């Protein structure tokens, strides 16, 4: 069932690993690569960051209540703008009326039906 | 099923536009594929909330090349985009799952669901219409009653077949989180719907009430450690269902033992070697699909890299593990960065439970013969689907010298995902959804 793996990346651990652990080395090497790119990545492996993101999936739209609350909170500062990437919604950024994505129409016959 | 059968899939019928990924065609992405109980009907749901149903042609001797081909039978808009005003969130119209009801009369019924609402659709044929009404003309204009001098009995005349779909029940407002599964019970009266944290039991006739049977929401959401990823009723025992989790576990519940099934009857988990644990371990162990075998004796789970078959009588570990694309283990870093590591692949059994099928990337899909322990990789693409030629097995080269006809891991197209496949309940006919195209392959041997 487990296949002999061709090693893509030379292991960071030295070759004390036995034959049966060969399949695990790529995963650990990948983990090291990821941590090198994103050192601030959470200590908790996998964990609840993904779960919370999953539970909240869905396009957030402009909400006048949120917008006015945010404006009131930052009455002295400028409201954070959308920036070059209009689809990125992070932190306190509340979508403004200007950067609403165009709502597509889906009331068209499926191409599968010819 | 023998190896020979697996290698001789041919006769593709391909539905869908040839266009690539673009804003216009995003709604065309197929999100679910399901045969009905007889296999004569095949339903697909897409991101745009539409359902398309295909019907198998009756084989007849005068057209031997028709070979039971599938043609479009009906199409309708099942769900439309909605808006949750309280949270300012859009509710996608994407059809997450379709499940057929067993046929009880001339009409066909199916359940289709998006993230929040399940609908029961009736699909019926009309091939006659009445003519000779007394009070109105053939074009529908009302006749002047004073000019009617004789009564006639309307007669039924044949007309061109019309297939109508109408929503018979709407099961709404029962899920706070996103529905990932629906499953019709073997009692043919009830069904379950599962979201990330809860599972509800419905009666097909009752839309204003559902019964919560599983609730894993913690009192404090900060303590959330796992979510429900899939759920299914046992094919024969109407009191038994299973649900899988994002931690790679499966719980089997018995509705006879208690009303609220938070405590499982059986708990299936493969022991993990703690020394092999990495950042990715939990993510790739998350089960994206769980399916009972037709026999009801086994169940199959799909995680990111493998398909596992479990004997319901053994909770300690699976009885079979099939590697789908183990070569991706050394690509997990980039697969995490491009979110592919979160792709949810489904899996399915053939009619006799002797073979299983699941999708992969680059429009590849994999079949495993459980008896002979052989497996094959096939491709669903227009280039490789010539009408009479068998599908050629594909091979991914994992390193070193690449042979002719092999494709290297780095050349795989991760945007071409096959997440949804279906197998005819009795025959060797398979349906494979490749983004916005549907491929139906038949076994050449027939």
Automatic annotation (TrEMBL), chain B:
One of its GO terms (molecular function) is protein phosphatase regulator activity. One of its GO terms (cellular component) is protein phosphatase type 2A complex. It comes from the Eukaryota. Gene3D superfamilies: YVTN repeat-like/Quinoprotein amine dehydrogenase. InterPro entries: PP2A_PR55, PP2A_PR55_CS, WD40/YVTN_repeat-like_dom_sf, WD40_repeat_dom_sf, WD40_rpt. Keywords: Repeat, WD repeat. The keyword Repeat applies. Belongs to the phosphatase 2A regulatory subunit B family. This is Serine/threonine-protein phosphatase 2A 55 kDa regulatory subunit B.
């Amino acid at each position: 069932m487990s296949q002999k793996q061709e090693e893509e990346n030379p292991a960071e651990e030295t070759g004390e690993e036995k034959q049966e652990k060969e399949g695990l080395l790529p995963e650990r090497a990948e983990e090291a690569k990821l941590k090198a790119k994103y050192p601030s990545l959470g200590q908790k492996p996998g964990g609840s960051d993904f779960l919370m993101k999953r539970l909240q999936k869905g396009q957030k739209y402009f909400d006048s209540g949120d917008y006015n609350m945010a404006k009131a909170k930052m009455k002295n500062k400028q409201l954070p703008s959308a920036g070059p990437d209009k689809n990125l919604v992070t932190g306190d950024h509340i979508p403004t009326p200007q950067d609403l994505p165009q709502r597509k129409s889906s009331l068209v016959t499926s191409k599968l039906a010819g | 099923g023998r190896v020979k059968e697996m290698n001789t899939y041919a006769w593709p019928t391909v539905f869908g536009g040839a266009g690539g990924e673009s804003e216009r065609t995003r709604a065309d992405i197929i999100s679910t594929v399901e045969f009905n109980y007889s296999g004569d009907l095949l339903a697909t749901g897409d991101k745009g909330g539409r359902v398309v149903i295909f019907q198998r042609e009756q084989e007849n001797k005068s057209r031997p090349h028709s070979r039971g081909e599938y043609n479009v039978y009906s199409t309708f808009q099942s769900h439309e985009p909605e808006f949750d005003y309280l949270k300012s969130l859009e509710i996608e119209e994407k059809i997450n799952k379709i499940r057929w009801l067993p046929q009880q009369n001339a009409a066909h019924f199916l359940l289709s669901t998006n993230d929040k609402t399940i609908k029961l659709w009736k699909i019926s044929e009309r091939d006659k219409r009445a003519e000779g009404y007394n009070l109105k003309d053939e074009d529908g204009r009302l006749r002047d009653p004073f000019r009617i001098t004789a009564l006639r009995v309307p007669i039924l005349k044949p007309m061109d077949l019309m297939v109508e779909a109408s929503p018979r029940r709407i099961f709404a407002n029962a899920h706070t989180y996103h529905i990932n599964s629906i499953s019709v019970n073997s009692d043919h009266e009830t069904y379950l719907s599962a979201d990330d944290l809860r599972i509800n039991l419905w009666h097909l006739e009752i839309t204003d009430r559902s019964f919560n049977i599983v609730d894993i929401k913690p009192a404090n959401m900060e303590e959330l450690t796992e979510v429900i990823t899939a759920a299914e009723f046992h094919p024969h025992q109407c009191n038994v269902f299973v649900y899988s989790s994002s931690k790679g576990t499966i719980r089997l519940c018995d509705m006879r033992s208690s009303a609220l099934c938070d405590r499982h009857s059986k708990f299936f988990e493969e022991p993990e070697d703690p020394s092999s644990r990495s950042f990715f371990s939990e993510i790739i162990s998350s089960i994206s699909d769980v399916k009972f075998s037709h026999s009801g004796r086994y169940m199959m789970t799909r995680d990111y890299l493998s398909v596992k078959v479990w004997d319901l009588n053994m909770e300690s570990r699976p009885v079979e593990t099939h590697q789908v694309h183990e070569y991706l283990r050394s690509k997990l870093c980039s697969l995490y960065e491009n979110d592919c590591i979160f792709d949810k692949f489904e899996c399915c059994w053939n009619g006799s439970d002797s073979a299983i099928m699941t999708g992969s990337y680059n429009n590849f899909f994999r079949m495993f013969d459980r008896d002979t322990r052989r497996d094959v990789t096939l491709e669903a693409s227009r280039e490789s689907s010539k009408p009479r030629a068998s599908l050629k097995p594909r091979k991914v080269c994992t390193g070193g010298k690449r042979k002719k006809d092999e494709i290297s891991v780095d050349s795989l197209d991760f945007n071409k995902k096959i997440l949804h496949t279906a197998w005819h309940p009795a025959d060797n006919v398979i349906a494979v959804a490749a983004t916005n195209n549907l491929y139906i392959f038949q076994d050449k041997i027939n």
